[in-house]
Amino acid sequence: MAFDPHTGQFEFSNWDLQSVIADLLEFIPAPNLLHKASQLSPYECDGLSAYHKVPKMVVLPETIKQCQQIVKYCKKHSIPVIARGAGTGLSGGVLPVEQAIVLSLAKFNRIQKIDPLQRLAIVQPGVRNLAITEAAAQYNLYYAPDPSSQIACSIGGNVAENSGGVHSLKYGLTVNNVLSLKVINSDGDLLDIGGGECMDSPGFDLLALMHGSEGLLGIIVEVTVQLIPKPESAQVVLAAFNKITDAGAAVRDIISSGIIPAGLEMMDKLATQAAEDFVHANYPLAEALLLCELDGSQSEIEQQMEKVNQILKNSHSHDIRLSQNDSERALFWAGRKAAFPAVGRISPDYYCMDGTIPRKALPEVLGKISDFSKQYGLRVANVFHAGDGNLHPLILYDANKTGDLQKAEQFGADILKHCVDKGGTITGEHGVGVEKIDQMCHQFHSSELLKFHQIKALLDESGILNPGKAIPSLHRCAELGAMHVHNGKLPHPDIPRF
Ligand SMILES: Cc1cc2nc3c(=O)[nH]c(=O)nc-3n(C[C@H](O)[C@H](O)[C@H](O)COP(=O)(O)OP(=O)(O)OC[C@H]3O[C@@H](n4cnc5c(N)ncnc54)[C@H](O)[C@@H]3O)c2cc1C
Fold first, then answer.
1. Of 242, 271, 235, 286, whose CA–CA distance to 384 is shortest?
2. Which of 123, 210, 331, 409 is spaced 20 to 30 A from 348 at the CA atom?
3. How far is 399 from 276, CA to CA, in rounded Å?
């Protein structure tokens, strides 16, 4: 198999299904080898259903040793391997490429240890995000990063995407909450990465490198996460605005006042309406809805809530409501957390973008998204982690209408390009996958992309781990006419077509 670390080009080998089944049966039980059409269809896509392809085979190992054997076998026979968690990803990260074997971590679903003294949990990668918090609740502890998909997504997938959630503004992303990992590299070796049960370890920070690596650098087979004490109390304030720019100003003023909310989220009118119709949270209908959660001791909350209230009034909010108890707090969040499926009810299909911008650019970027919406003739519902400057425009389209998907893709690409031009990035938390691979050419220079390929080649010299995702080949960028070249020089003399 040809893998060119300079360009990221990869050629797939053509393997025979029956002989691979016969070989794998040596160490994988037959029920854990899926190869019939009826078994394979659930694995053809992730949450980004616009792109799908039925894999040739799915393997469900149950032990680390089996994972190692599969990876070694695939390396020997030049077969690409795609790690798969719960398949809730939104960037096509688990899309089966030509001739790949999908390695599902679904059977790695055990919580191995909860240590309330060390405040940590050691879990297998297929454990659901929310299951960790549920298991830690008996010790009054919880796992902070809370993607809206937390009921289903796996902790292994969270690491591979460096996922965030409503509470990441105060408590950080996955990378800030993981202490160590066990990872299988493409040689099939098991690596211990990070400080184990301690806070840190010497040497290069491979733990950070694995976060957001999208299955390209290794298969995560164990995760040690830190747990934190549940706050004494938490309260949400909900505020409605007639102008989205006023809501943006409120976000700016809350953050610059020195308060760090546990969550600071915004929805526009279309998203609010869809969420209200779906969960009946009793949301006021306005151009923008802001949800701000404060947590800590009761006196801390009261003190900060007074300040937040004043800021909301000064920013012309016409309807301010404070949650009166935990069930009302949960109801206020229910609409926001269900915003994606709610939008799914008002359109045959939607395409979820995930750009980040400096917070100050929020009003301008929202205006631009609205312009693009008119230009492409497609509606857009905006949901965002406002405190983090992380936008999720949901572009509504109909895959059955000729050209609609292409329009949605181009619309999404324009939004992400605009985010980069405003000093932001093409992804905040959903990863690059196949979806944003072309926009990587806009975000990075050729020399930076080359470094990514060189790091990948160091950890996966044969290039078998999730090829064709996350990092575009330099040729691809050149063909798109999007190759940025530093100082008029090419980054490496071996890049053929330059
Ligand atoms: C309704 C909805 C809401 C969402 N809300 C959020 C949100 O608020 N915040 C957020 O960050 N994301 C959100 N997501 C996106 C998604 O849930 C996250 O990206 C999540 O971390 C994916 O986890 P998963 O187990 O489903 O991974 P998968 O989709 O199975 O895989 C995702 C990527 O991780 C890799 N991978 C998975 N497991 C492993 C492993 N063990 N070792 C190595 N690589 C692996 C895969 O190869 C792939 O590249 C949402 C998705 C949906 C559908």
1. 271
2. 331
3. 25
How far apart are the CA of 154 and the centre of ligand 1, in A? 7
Q: Is it true that domain 111-229 has CATH number 3.30.465.10?
A: yes
pLDDT at 200 (0 to 100): 72
Phi, psi of 75 (to 5 degrees): -65, -45
**H or E element that contains 16:** none
pLDDT digits (tens, 9 = 90+) for 150-177: 999 999 999 999 999 989 999 999 999 9
- How would you class 233 by CB atoms within 10 Å of its CB: exposed for 0-12, middle for 13-18, buried for 19 or more? middle
| Ranges of CATH 3.30.465.10 domains, the chain | 111-229
- Residues 98-111: what's their mean pLDDT? 96
Q: What is the CATH number of domain 347-435?
A: 3.30.70.2740
Phi and psi of 22, rounded to 5°?
Answer: -60, -40
pLDDT tens-place string over residues 242-270: 998 899 889 989 999 999 999 999 999 99
Q: Which residues contact 29 (CB under 8 A, 6 or more apart)?
A: none
Predicted local confidence at residue 98, as pLDDT? 82
Quick one: pLDDT band at residue 7, thresholds 50, 70, 90?
A: low
- Least Cα distance to 478 among 460, 491, 463, 465 occurs for 491
Q: What is the pLDDT of residue 198?
A: 72
Q: Which of 208, 214, 216, 212 shows the shortest CA–CA distance to 5?
A: 216
Please give the model's pTM, rounded to 2 decimal places: 0.92
Kindly give the distance from the C-alpha atom of residue 258 to the centroid of ligand 1, in angstroms, as a whole number: 32
Look at residue 12 in the predicted model and tell me its pLDDT: 75
Q: Which atom of ligand 1 is nearest to the CA of 47?
A: 53
Nearest atom within ligand 1 for CA of residue 431: 19
Least confident of 43-52, 138-147, 273-282: 43-52
The closest residue, in CA terms, to atom 50 on ligand 1 is 149
The best mutation among 48, 59, 64, 161 to test binding of ligand 1, ranked by most ligand atoms within 8 Å of the C-beta, falls on: 161
Distance (Å, rounded) from C-alpha 161 to C-alpha 155?
10
Q: Which atom of ligand 1 is nearest to the CA of 164?
A: 11
Q: Tell me how far apart the alpha carbons of residues 120 and 125 are, in angstroms, rounded to a whole number.
A: 15
